[in-house]
Amino acid sequence: MTIAAQVKRIAADARQAAIAMARLSSGRKNDLLIAMAEALIAGTAEIIAENGKDLEAGRKKGLSGAMLDRLMLDASRVKAMADGLREVAALPDPVGEVTRMWLRPNGLQVGKMRIPLGVIGIIYESRPNVTADAAALCLKAGNAVILRGGSEAIHSNLAIARILQGEMAKAGIPVAALSLIPFIEREGVLEMLKQEESIDLIIPRGGESLIRFVVENSRIPVIKHYKGVCHVFVDAAADPEMAERIIVNAKVQRPGVCNALETLLVHRDAAATFIPRIAATLTELKVELRGDEEFRRFAPQALPATEEDWQAEYLELILACRVVDDLDAAIDHINRYSSLHTEAIVTGDYGHAQRFIREVNSSTVLVNASTRFADGGQLGLGAEIGISTTKLHSFGPMGLEDLTTTKFIVYGDGQVRQ
């Protein structure tokens, strides 16, 4: 059977499985997720062994340190996947929720009810934990899911999917509701993007080139974010110790992720005291600084920043830095260069905080907190399916509700339209 025929069969089977998923009770879905979590823990050694094959292949291919970090699984990360499944199981089931009801003058009661989207295709790179996260969220929301991970994680993804599917089979739930494209040829992605009769939504997770490829080739609606150019603005009224702690966490903890800090903005009135402090700390932590002329006055170790730096998603220990005149200038810079992902202000001024929240148009805006909190798990959604910077359907980290839509429900007692 050709790749095209196999993908078409996988999509058609998922469509049928989605019908069964939509009918499952909350109890059965929750029991399944808990069993899956236990199976992941029991299969930790198998998962790590298969992940080791991917890591070895990645090193031979010359993958960057950031890419290898995304790819790597150890016992703690497997446990985090299992914990994510349990968290999703504990969340309220959105399916069947009536979000509002209203009475029409003719006596009709009209409402809106949450229903599953149907079949969701996830195309992702590197991070094998997405296999478990996506499965948990899609299944809990009553959907079927088709997963297509990157070639660099094929052994890890197949192992995780195999363990999860085993629990579905034990529970009598159609295994086709969780499908993983088992081959690495790009043709598989292209064929998947043609299955508009079977797949309702595509969510790509990965680098900008992958996401643009998906958008350009898909016949199916796509939820996307191209990159994470995340900003922190240190206001004149910022606590310097708090600002330093937030910046270090946002930039250094995991520089290769989309919610890592990429551009630092400092209020002119705080520049002389704060910049030498933060520059020394970041330099000690091996962060390469690229600053405008004013920033470099106080941090001569910084390289000159160019226009491209304000638009860059480095995904490594490089940080673009700029001095701005005031809050207005900071907001203008962010709204010009932002990728609509995540922005933060550090300030003790309530009015400035409120203005920043109102006037910065990104999908997650924080006050006195690290950009690293732009994550579904950290925001209380359980594991996230991804982050959307498209404003239609969903904006920001996507959890269970974002994997449903609503239909109108109408109760009458014999009304006919005049």
TrEMBL record:
Catalytic function, reaction form: L-glutamate 5-semialdehyde + phosphate + NADP(+) = L-glutamyl 5-phosphate + NADPH + H(+)
Localization (cell): Cytoplasm
Major subcellular location class: cytoplasm
Pathway, per record: Amino-acid biosynthesis; L-proline biosynthesis; L-glutamate 5-semialdehyde from L-glutamate: step 2/2
Top-tier EC class: oxidoreductase
One GO term describing the cellular component: cytoplasm
This protein's UniProt keywords: Amino-acid biosynthesis, Cytoplasm, NADP, Oxidoreductase, Proline biosynthesis
Record Gene3D superfamilies: Aldehyde Dehydrogenase, Chain A, domain 1 (3.40.605.10), Aldehyde Dehydrogenase, Chain A, domain 2 (3.40.309.10)
InterPro entries listed in its UniProt record: Ald_DH/histidinol_DH (IPR016161), Ald_DH_C (IPR016163), Ald_DH_N (IPR016162), Aldehyde_DH_dom (IPR015590), G-glutamylP_reductase_CS (IPR020593), Glu-5-SA_DH (IPR012134), GPR_dom (IPR000965)
Every Aldehyde dehydrogenase domain range: 4-293
Domain of life from the UniProt record: Bacteria
EC number of this enzyme: 1.2.1.41
GO molecular function term, any single one: NADP binding
Similarity section: Belongs to the gamma-glutamyl phosphate reductase family.
Biological role stated in the UniProt entry: Catalyzes the NADPH-dependent reduction of L-glutamate 5-phosphate into L-glutamate 5-semialdehyde and phosphate. The product spontaneously undergoes cyclization to form 1-pyrroline-5-carboxylate.
Name of this protein: Gamma-glutamyl phosphate reductase
Organism encoding this protein: Geobacter argillaceus
